[in-house]
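Can anyone check this?
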Amino acid sequence: MIATERPFRLPVGYLDDDGTFHRDGVMRMATAADEILPLRDPRVQSNEAYLIVILLSRVITRLGTLETVTPKVIESVFAADLAYLQDFYNQLNLTGEGGARPACPTCEHRELEVNGAGGS
């Protein structure tokens, strides 16, 4: 079975309006739509740095006891937590660590080169 979600723990934690810190969460692997659809958002079109806010709000499936993780929640995390979430996102989606590692369709060996950098 392919693991498409990973738990995480924020270094500081999101402080909600009631004064509760939320540190433990779950992030799922991003889909193509997660990366493409936010580009249509006017907030991203006027400020490309906002892309990460929308992207993270789409892929974080749980944060503490919050019912939903919205862009407003991501806007309110501390800078250390935002940096952590960006690194975690890249680790999960770009390097495949913690997510699904591709396997050779012939022998199912898990050290398959997917970026074309492998030797021949």
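Reply from J.R.: I decoded it. Helices lie at 32-36, 42-46, 51-59, 71-75, 79-93.
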